[in-house]
Write a structure and sequence with these properties.
Order of helices and strands: EHEEEEHEEE
Oligomer: single chain
Largest sheet: 4 strands, mixed
Strand order of the largest sheet: 1-4-3-2
Shape: globular
Length: about 130
C-alpha cells in the first residue's frame, strides 16, 4: 500500500484570524484544540487539515493546497476581498478538463481553487465500472 497523505496544516501567527478567513471563504468548521494554538479544519471530507500557530510568517516556496470549488473566479474574488493576493486568475488545464485559479492568503499559504470534470470523487476514488 502506498503511503497516503493523512493530514496537512497551515502555519500562521494568528490562528483565530486564519480560521475566520477560511470559515468565511469555504464555510469550513473547526475543532479548536486548544483555541488559538491549533485548529483542526473540518472541510467535510478527509484528509482534514489544520491551522497551527507559528510565530514566523511563511516565506519562500510553500506547498499548495487544492480545494474543489464550483466557481474559481468567485472564490478568488472573495479571498482577495478578505486580504488574499492573486497568484493567477482562472485558467484551463486541458489534461483534466479543469479550470483553476490560485491565491496566497494573508499569512503566506497558497491555495488553488480547482474545478474539473472527473478527477475528484466524493468517495475518494472513481466508481467501480
Amino acid at each position: 500500500m502506498p503511503n497516503p497523505v493523512i493530514f496537512m496544516d497551515l502555519p500562521t501567527p494568528d490562528v483565530e484570524a486564519t480560521s475566520r478567513f477560511y470559515a468565511d471563504l469555504f464555510g469550513w468548521t473547526f475543532n479548536r484544540r486548544p483555541e488559538g494554538e491549533f485548529h483542526e479544519v473540518l472541510p467535510g471530507v478527509k484528509p482534514h487539515l489544520g491551522i497551527h500557530r507559528e510565530e514566523r510568517p511563511v516565506t519562500g516556496p510553500v506547498p499548495r493546497i487544492y480545494v474543489m470549488v464550483d466557481e474559481p473566479p468567485a472564490y478568488l474574488e472573495k479571498a482577495v476581498a478578505n486580504g488574499a493576493s492573486v497568484l493567477w486568475e482562472e485558467k484551463s488545464w486541458a489534461e483534466f478538463e479543469a479550470r483553476y485559479a490560485a491565491f496566497r492568503d494573508p499569512w503566506g499559504n497558497e491555495v488553488v481553487l480547482w474545478r474539473d470534470k472527473g478527477t475528484y470523487f466524493k468517495s475518494g476514488h472513481a466508481p467501480e465500472a
